[in-house]
Design a protein that fits this description.
0% strand; Receptor-associated Protein; 288 residues; single chain; mainly alpha; 13 helices
């Protein structure tokens, strides 16, 4: 290659945006009449996207099945009781989902810590007179993971030809951070109507810092209550597993009587209702 030959960069064209592939999902977020099954599928899709795990949803389901079979098989070899093996297998199948939930929570907390600094850098880049797309690309390259990965995804979509609003549309969904809706809206409005973007970004950064301070105080004040709630959810399950492991005939004897069956079904139903209720409270209290 000769020394005088230069490589011209590819200009973003809107025609390139047509080749962007949407992520495969099980649910349909646009279908409000899908019922409970569609809600579960949408929740699972959201968990896989927001956890940042680089595995397909189908692989996660296979992993749940594999862990469940291993757990149930080990219990069956130990006690030779199909009922106990099925119970432990069901619990084991939920372990990968629990791990994904924990990973998502830690990832969102780390991104929230990175967000004020990222917005400050975006404001400093905007002061230089660059376009929003150029400022966003600079910030995306300078921001470490995990927030930097999501910013680079948006930057790549803009380089492929999508406009700013379309490229940032899925950012709050992919991260699970409600605060990013404000940033996306501010950038979209500025692109359409103009205005003092630097002042808006500086105020937004200070607002997020104040919100992080408030959430930190809230978590510290409610730490005991949240721990008690988690203990209330997990204690009944561990009690049943303890007595079943201690006496393999405990659960079959309980289910042999009509009263035992009714009490067990009522207890399972109340446990499910309590889990959903407490989970919603914990999720709303930690919403970022």
């Amino acid at each position: 290659m000769s020394a005088g030959l230069t490589m011209n960069p590819i200009e973003p064209l809107s025609d390139f945006a047509a080749i962007l592939r949407d992520q495969q999902t099980f649910g349909d977020p646009n279908n409000d009449e899908g019922g409970f099954s569609n809600s579960v599928n949408n929740g699972f899709d959201k968990l896989m996207v927001q956890s940042g795990l680089d595995i397909a949803p189908g692989v996660m389901l296979f992993l749940c099945l594999f862990v469940g079979l291993i757990s149930g098989g080990m219990m069956f070899v130990f006690q030779e009781n199909p009922l106990t093996a099925a119970m432990l297998g069901a619990l084991g199948a939920g372990v990968p989902i629990l791990v994904a939930v924990i990973v998502r929570q830690r990832r969102q907390q780390k991104m929230m810590q990175q967000l004020p600094g990222m917005i400050d850098e975006l404001a400093r880049a905007a002061k230089t007179g660059r376009s929003i797309q150029q400022c966003w690309e600079i910030v995306a390259n300078d921001t470490p993971t995990p927030l930097g990965e999501e910013l680079k995804t948006c930057s790549n979509r803009m380089r492929m030809g999508e406009d700013l609003a379309s490229a940032l549309l899925e950012l709050p969904y992919r991260t699970g951070i409600v605060t990013l809706n404000i940033l996306v809206t501010a950038l979209g409005v500025h692109q359409q109507t103009g205005g003092d973007l630097v002042r808006v970004l500086e105020r937004l950064s200070q607002t997020i810092r104040d919100r992080l301070l408030f959430l930190g105080r809230l978590r510290a004040a409610t730490a005991g209550s949240r721990l008690t709630a988690v203990l209330m959810l997990g204690l009944p399950v561990f009690i049943v597993l303890f007595f079943t492991a201690r006496d393999s005939e405990y659960f079959p004897k309980l289910m042999a009587s009509r009263m035992g069956q009714n009490v067990t079904l009522i207890g399972i139903g109340l446990q499910i209702i309590g889990t959903i209720f407490i989970s919603n409270i914990l999720r709303n209290s930690q919403r970022s």
